[in-house]
Amino acid sequence: MTAVVPAPERPSRYRIEPTVMQALRNPRLLTREVLAGLVVALALIPEAIAFSIIAGVDPRVGLFSSFVMAVAISFLGGRPAMITAATGAVALVIAPVAREYGMDYFIATVLLGGVIQIGLALLGVAKLMRFIPRSVMVGFVNALAILIFTAQLPQLWDVPWLVYPLVAVGLAILFLMPRITKVVPAPLVTIVLLTGAVVVFGWTVPNVGDQGELPQSLPELFIPNVPFTLETLGIIGPFALAMAAVGLLETLMTAKLVDDITDTHSRKTREAWGLGVANVLSGAFGGMGGCAMIGQTMINVKASGARTRISTFLAGVFLLILVVALGDVVAVIPMAALVAVMILVSISTFDWHSIRPSTLRRMPKSETAVMVITVAATVWTHNLAIGVVLGVLTAMIMFARRVAHFVTVTRTVAPSESGDIAHYEVVGELFFASSNDLTTQFEYADDPEHVVIDMTRSHIWDASTVAALDAVATKYERLGKTATIQGLNDTAAAFRRRLSGNLGAGH
């Protein structure tokens, strides 16, 4: 009897190495993940405070939200090493609720936004990422880099002159340190050295403590006191829907970016519903909600080299420890150190290859236009969702126009036993943009009584094309001529049989 040896299992395309267990067994990898989490936590503090101010809530709301979401997504998310916390995009969308209706309605909006994200994830919204073209992705990345850089400018305006040399020294450390050693993340070295210099020499420069009051206690459960009525839903519904859309879009785009950087595949649907659950948990603890953070993610993945969920989990844990137990220490960190880190992130995030003259000469003008529109719309509105949506719409229009010109109609007239026959060969993809002019490509009055339209080298994609073919046949019928359509493949033929004569137009 012959033993059957099972074939080895194919490794999952979603298995991202190193895994958490591999990192825990490897001291070098574990050290890298721990230090990366610490760096991200330090960078999260001023950002969370700033976003709280944008949303019009207490700084503690943003800090607690960042802690809850970072820890939650480390277990729930589909993209290891990606940082999710309170963000400016979400803060901008839901800020009017806190300003006009108060904290209870604000938290109810966050909770409903999370629930909507879970629902959209279960409906498969993450699969729509395949329709975002590369030019939009490049525009998204470049716009993020610009926004990260411009967000640092207020920290460089109307400040003591010492801030400028501190930032310059910080950038020098960040650029030179990786060439010497990568054992310790360069951002952490920068923060420690600049903080030490400021404390030792007693320099007075803006620090983290100037950004807002740090919390003194742990987050507590928060149940919003709002009536469960249609009126309440009418108030918070539009803001919650906008929050869900912006958060999902920014998160999925960031996940795709990290996939490209690390050359791995992540579970976008899991990331989508994980974000929704994280937002629900954030709201339950009085947080403002958020989504993936491109700046902190780049610090974690590119600057610090993290690859596992350990760094994401520890970023949240360290954040809570730093602001609650070590708040006095964190408060003295100079903003110059964090500004230097974020400037490096913006420089490394920007796709410099995309704006080289040689690249622009080779790239189709339509692709460049899509990238520029995405960047301009995002930077102008400070809303990544608006920029990406406009970029995708522009790409769709450009594509439709380009494909519309690929359809050709060739006419020949040949004699036969029953008389002359006009033969038309249609070549190309027929959809609304290319089929609208199809009816103008035929010589109705000059054609003989018998006309053959050969569709062998074309394909019908939509109802507009079926309506156009019906219109062509109708025009010939009115002239007492016969038009025969042949050569359709099975799918196109079935599609035409189902719709032909039932569209109204032309009959």
Outline the fold blueprint.
Blueprint: H1 20-25, H2 27-55, H3 59-76, E1 84-86, H4 88-101, H5 103-122, H6 134-150, H7 163-180, H8 186-201, H9 230-262, H10 268-284, E2 290-292, H11 294-303, H12 309-324, H13 327-331, H14 335-349, H15 357-362, H16 365-381, H17 384-404, E3 408-414, E4 421-430, H18 432-435, E5 450-454, E6 458-460, H19 463-478, E7 482-486, H20 490-499
Parallel strand pairs: 4-5, 4-6, 5-7
Antiparallel strand pairs: 1-2, 3-4
Helix pairs in contact: 2-3, 2-4, 2-11, 2-12, 3-10, 3-12, 4-5, 4-9, 5-9, 5-10, 6-14, 6-16, 6-17, 7-8, 7-14, 8-14, 9-10, 9-11, 11-14, 16-17
Any overview of this molecule?
The protein is an alpha/beta fold. About 60% of the residues lie in helices and about 5% in strands. It is built from 20 helices and seven strands. The strands form two sheets. Strands 3, 4, 5, 6 and 7 form a five-stranded mixed β-sheet that branches. A two-stranded antiparallel sheet has the order 1-2. A hairpin with a 6-residue loop joins strand 3 and strand 4. Helix 5 runs antiparallel to helix 10 and helix 7 packs antiparallel against helix 8. The longest helix has about 35 residues, at about 230-260. Mean pLDDT is about 90; it is low at about 5-10.
